[in-house]
Design a protein that fits this description.
The complex is a heterodimer of chains A (about 400) and B (about 250).
Chain A lengths: L23 H24 L4 H10 L18 H11 L6 H11 L3 H6 L2 H13 L4 E4 L15 E5 L2 E12 L6 E7 L9 E7 L5 E6 L10 E12 L10 H7 L1 H29 L1 E2 L2 E2 L4 H29 L5 H25 L10 H8 L10 H12 L5
Parallel strand pairs in A: 1-4
Antiparallel strand pairs in A: 2-3, 3-7, 4-5, 6-7, 8-9
Chain B lengths: L3 E5 L2 E3 L21 E3 L1 H15 L5 E8 L3 H11 L3 E6 L2 H5 L3 H15 L3 E5 L10 H9 L3 E11 L2 E8 L2 E8 L2 E5 L11 H7 L4 E4 L32 H10 L4
Parallel strand pairs in B: 1-4, 1-6, 4-5, 5-11, 6-10, 7-10
Antiparallel strand pairs in B: 2-3, 7-8, 8-9
The chains are: A alpha+beta (about 400), B alpha/beta (about 250).
Chain lengths: ~400, ~250
């Protein structure tokens, strides 16, 4: 056999993807990840940054960055189930930071622009982002406002045909490398859900300061920035859609954001379980493989069961969504479960790796660190619970 | 010349998968295991598509023999730029004993039917490692063969092939129609882009039965047993060169 067996691929009798696209999963996505990304992950994790422009260009050339975006701007015009299929494949990347960075580019910074932006804006910002020529970031969270988006303080004050922006953003994924930011700012003094606008902000404008790159416990290959705006002037035509609709536009894409995040987490969880099986099968303790101890293989069976349940929820929600249904409740449930299951799974599996699990040389410890963010970012668990309760009509009135 | 190139593509267990032998030692576990196109077949497809892009040939036809699932492999070839596909239907049971001789007979029959100018195959499949199909197909057709190709130049009426051989490189000139087999360094296959994968859904795959081509599938070979390679034994450390020579003499190696 000329090609040596190296990576571990999960085995299963059930096709794992929501959509099986011949040529995509094996020959395209897997190859790109296997040849262009995974060999460098350890290095990028150590350096605290992956080369976004280079990687996004490779993905852009493969048509992966605009799956559900309009064909006129380089996208494929497919429904969201294809975005989920792409996300599932990205879970083969041996860290959480890079899929997260890609997700910001494809499903967080660009959906509102694709839906509501002017032709001019889409040509300047959406098209190059889909082609992989420009790196995007999302500016919503601030130092003083994460879950409570309506309390953000960044202001964009209209002066003639410009906005003057003052304030700052926090937790900006891709922030140190981005060419433009999809910025949410207060553009008037009205009620907090109706006074905000989304603005396409070039990151090289005078007054935009990358204050620092944040040193995080996980997702280390994804550069996360704190950004300040000091009298930044941007043309007023850079507002996406209607002024005052920014908050609404952001909320509209939450279902997709959440389902997308669940999709790649599932694939990585499969891989962590499989690597744990392989490790414990060959590691001996008290004269027999660790895997042969019932507590170990039973626990892995429990975890795999939960992964399959969450996968079913993801596929069900996606199927409903592409038919035009509101899946806010299911998407929030899936996001909530993904964060909690990832923590449980990472913790249980790491234990079975013993001392090796505590080193930085193994995937399980990186997963343990990376996956802790899922319960926090993209909508904290507590926010998910509040949404579910709203749909269950159990919130105090 | 028809300007038509036939490319054989085989669906094999993905190169990155850890192979497991079945408990009954009749073969390896394939059920539920990740499969993809044989890497050398990918190189063959890439070479054919490049010829078409250079307008040296007119049509690339991707062929695969096997059960229903091989259609995925044909679709991948279509996504890489092949124009249409042919699925030679072989039942799962018959597929277990399908070997290079039967495939060669099928390819030879198809090449005649399609009036192919060239057949391009991978030099071998990473499951069987047989390295026979290309050679047998050429022999059955009485066509010249350019095997282990690391460079191919198509000219009017003939092909110049640079072959990777033990001593280095050998350049030959053979007349068309001919059979070529692709070696590792022939090219770097393109990633099938998602837009092309979606376009490939509309390209046609024809279904053909071996009997329609006059080919008998019965194999004269029977696999008796499959075993894993022997586990690597621990080595022995020696202190000096004399010790090493002594140990080698003991083991009867020198």
């Amino acid at each position: 056999n000329v090609f040596h067996s190296k990576a571990v691929s999960p085995t299963s009798a059930v096709p794992r993807g929501f959509r099986v696209l011949p040529g995509f999963q094996n020959e395209s996505a897997f190859k790109i990840i296997d040849q262009e990304i995974n060999p460098h992950v350890d290095q990028w994790e150590a350096e605290g940054k992956f080369p976004a422009h280079r990687i996004f260009k490779i993905l852009g050339n493969a048509g992966i960055l605009g799956v559900n975006k309009p064909v006129e701007y380089g996208g494929l015009g497919l429904d969201f189930s294809y975005s989920v299929a792409v996300s599932e494949e990205l879970g083969n990347i041996r860290c959480g930071g890079i899929p997260m960075a890609i997700g910001v580019q494809t499903d967080m910074a660009t959906p509102a622009l694709a839906r509501f932006g002017s032709h001019e804006l889409k040509t300047e910002f959406l098209l190059p982002s889909i082609l992989g020529d420009k790196v995007a970031c999302l500016g919503v969270s601030e130092v003083g406002a994460g879950s409570d988006v309506s309390s953000i303080m960044t202001k964009a004050v209209r002066q003639g045909d410009e906005y003057v922006i003052n304030g700052g953003k926090m937790w900006t994924t891709n922030g140190t490398q981005a060419d433009w930011m999809c910025l949410l700012a207060n553009t008037s003094d009205g009620p907090p859900h109706r006074n905000k606008s989304l603005i396409c902000l070039p990151m090289d404008l005078p007054g935009v300061h990358i204050a620092r790159q944040i040193d995080k416990m996980g997702m280390r290959s994804s550069d996360t920035a704190e950004v300040f705006f000091d009298d930044v002037r941007v043309p007023s035509k850079n507002v996406i859609g209607k002024e005052g609709m920014g908050f609404t536009y952001q909320m509209l894409q939450f279902q997709e954001e959440r389902l997308w995040a669940v999709a790649n987490t599932l694939t990585t969880m499969d891989i962590v379980i499989q690597e744990t099986i392989d490790y414990t099968r060959q590691r001996k303790i008290f004269k027999m493989p660790v895997l042969h101890h019932q507590t170990v293989h039973f626990r892995l069976a429990e975890l795999q069961t939960e992964v399959e349940l969450l996968r079913s929820l993801l596929h069900r929600a996606t199927a409903l969504f592409i038919k035009g249904n509101d899946v806010t409740k299911l998407a929030s449930m899936a996001k909530l479960k993904a964060g909690r299951l990832a923590r449980e799974l990472g913790d249980s599996c790491l234990q079975y790796w013993g001392g090796m699990g505590f080193t930085n040389d193994v995937l399980v410890s990186r997963f343990y660190r990376d996956s802790r963010l899922i319960s926090i970012g993209g909508g904290a668990d507590e926010v998910m619970l509040g949404i579910i309760c709203k749909y269950m009509d159990t919130l105090p009135k | 010349m028809s300007g038509r190139v036939l490319v054989g593509v085989k669906r094999v267990i993905d190169y990155a998968v850890k192979i497991r032998v079945k408990p009954d030692h009749s073969g390896v576990v394939t059920e539920g295991v990740k499969h993809s196109m044989n890497p050398f077949c990918e190189i063959a497809v890439e070479e054919a598509v490049k010829m078409k892009e250079k307008k040296l040939i007119k049509e690339v036809v991707a062929v695969s023999c096997g059960p229903q699932q091989v259609q995925e492999t044909i679709r991948t070839a279509l996504a890489m730029g092949a124009d249409r596909g042919i699925h030679v239907e072989v039942s799962a049971k018959e597929y277990e004993s399908l070997g290079p001789l039967q495939v060669s007979k099928i390819l030879a029959a198809l090449a005649k039917k399609e009036e192919a100018q060239l057949i391009i195959l991978g030099k071998q499949a990473i499951d069987g490692d047989c390295n026979q199909t290309g050679q047998m197909t050429a022999a059955l057709l009485d066509w010249p063969q350019g095997t282990f190709a690391s460079e191919v130049t198509l000219e009017a009426g003939h092909v110049k092939v640079v072959r990777e051989i033990d001593g280095g490189l050998e350049t030959i000139k053979i007349n068309t129609p001919a059979v070529l087999t692709a070696d590792l360094r022939l090219n770097t296959p393109r990633y099938a882009t998602l837009p092309n994968i979606m376009k490939a859904k509309k390209k046609k795959i024809a279904n053909v039965k071996p009997a329609d081509l006059g080919v008998e599938l019965a194999s004269k070979l029977q696999v008796l047993r499959v075993d894993e390679p022997p586990q690597r034994e621990a080595g022995v450390k020696v202190e000096s060169v004399d010790d090493l020579v002594g140990k080698l003499k003991e083991a009867g190696r020198i």
